[in-house]
Amino acid sequence: MFETLLSQKTSPEEGDISDNDLIKRVEQDPEAFGVLMERYEKPLARYLMRLTGWGEEEVGDILQEAFIKAYQHLHDYDTTLKFSTWLYRITHNQAIDTLRKQNARPVLNLSLEEAARFVSGTEDTEAQLLRQEELEEIRNAILRLPFLYRDVLLLRFLEEKSYEEIMDILKKPKGTIATLIRRGRELLMKDLKREIAN
Amino acid sequence: MSVLIEKTLRQIRGEHLRPLPMWRSVLSNVAYWIGVVLAILLSSVAVMFSLHAIFEIDWDVFAQTKLSWFEVLITSVPLASLVLLLLFLTGSVVLLHHTRRGYRYTSSALFGLFIAISVLAGYTIESTKWDEPVEQFLLGAIPQTETVREVLIPSAKHQWSQPEKGLLGGTVINVDDQHLSLLDGQGKRWDIEYQEDMVFPQENWGVGDKVKVIGEQQEDGAFSAGEIRIWQKISTPLPVVPDSDREEDDIFEERVNEESSHDEGSSEREEDESPKSRPESGEQSSLIKDVPFTVQAPFAEWSNPLFEDACEEASVTMAAYWISGKPLSREVAKKEILALAEWQRKKFGQAVDTSAQDTLLLLSDYYGVTSGKVVTKVTTADMTGALRAGKLVIVPADGRKLKNPNFKQPGPTHHMVVVVGYDSATKEFITNDPGTRAGERFRYPAERLYQAILDYATGDHVAVTSTDKVMLVITKQA
Lengths: 198, 478
What we know:
The complex is a heterodimer of chains A (about 200) and B (about 475). Chain A has about 200 residues and is mainly α. Chain A has helices at about 1-10, 20-30, 35-50, 55-70, 85-100, 110-115, 125-135, 135-145, 145-160, 165-170, 175-195. Chain A starts with a helix and ends with a helix. At the A-B interface, α3, α4 and α11 of A face α1 and α2 of B.
């Protein structure tokens, strides 16, 4: 059955099998969980790399533990959410736990292009200029941001999650998410301007 | 399939992992919701206690006293209840955040919502008759010391028990043009000088009414009033029942004289003197003065079966202390009830219920009061007659038929109350009912109380077979 599911994944009909249908099948056939993992492995691994700055091996370990937790707590999944949102939440919490246990500081792993996306879309014309000329500075400023803001900006501008999704991933009210994004960007812009002035 | 997925599936297979059962997830969510509801309920009760205290306090009085603002705050604001309210509200917010989607709401919004619900529910409980049973139920679970009770439930009673600060409250036991006597909460007698124009509101009042007096303590037992406020009024002024050695005719003479002495008052008084409000002949109003009151669980020990079944002991204690004239404080009442229960255990082998006859033994053999007797086949006329003659009446009753809203419903099957008076205008017996904290001068429709009377046997809630109506009649010896 699992092999069939995997083969379906690559077939055009694969999209017809929803996450929720797959979750129901996991109850009878635990191996069906492999299909769900395959769907979200890459985006989650990329998110973890951006969040922690760690390499493939460490990220793989975190992700494996996150998948195991998701599998064991499958009945905690609230079907009103997207399955991806729930997986992001578990992965995020697993990453934070690991960082805390290892007493490690997360190092943001961003390309210059990715860094630019933190300030794109702003109406601040000065920011447009900065994006063009000082990408390196932007990346440094992002690294200096408190983790709380960096976390939420990453989900918003690189993972391109909606406010509702971020609310459900970080388990914070929507208003708080909006405030964190606004303040994060303000802090970022302020820091950038100060650095450039210096 | 990637290496990571293969590794994960291998781990699942190797360790025989399975998704945790759904009931665990459901149970955890339900448990948090139950916690939220309980915390809100407790918040509501804290609001009820706070409102109870706040409503009862006469805030304007503080301006006329020697109390500092700090003392006002400590003695009047229900700080403990407010702290508990804050605690329960915080608990409910924290618990709701742990429910499946609770994180979507801000703490401040939830806090505001829960305050609104608690205030609404607390106000509803406070303004209905449910506050007493709720209070009794909860107070059974807290330490039974006076201090703890007063910290948790500051009340007007506490405010008006500070004669040294000029605040005195109690029940009027005697009154004339310039002097009144009252019994305070501790059963102490006070003689108070006053003038008619000091009484607010200016309406008919007299013996049996509870009053608040603002003034100055002169010496031990004497007080000079500056203002008198009617606290709790009985519906019609009742004549003072004289000592038992006085002739019955004297009662009515005293009543007429008493009413004449108030004649100089307002037109409202004149209305009260109309023939309509006068007692019918044969069933005149009466009230036996200075019968002390105690609830059968003096410190709200309702969860203790001994106090739950102590209505006979409490009734006998009230009668004995009425005869002796000694003050009956809560501490004393508790000691007496415990001692009577112990005495019963030795005499009858249990201390649950005692029949009318055996209750009389408590009075005669334990207290040495021999002026009591059991009357059978009684009628309401027998009861009102005994009261009019200044005799105290104790009746065993089916507590469920009394329909007292303050009882833990449906009420006790075997109960005993002290009857201290009769109001012919409303056709109500006035009782000292030990079954509720609010039992002092509690009024029952005469017919309802009479129908509830029954002669139960000594034992542990023995089924009642007799249809006899009995009462204990106690005469105050000269």
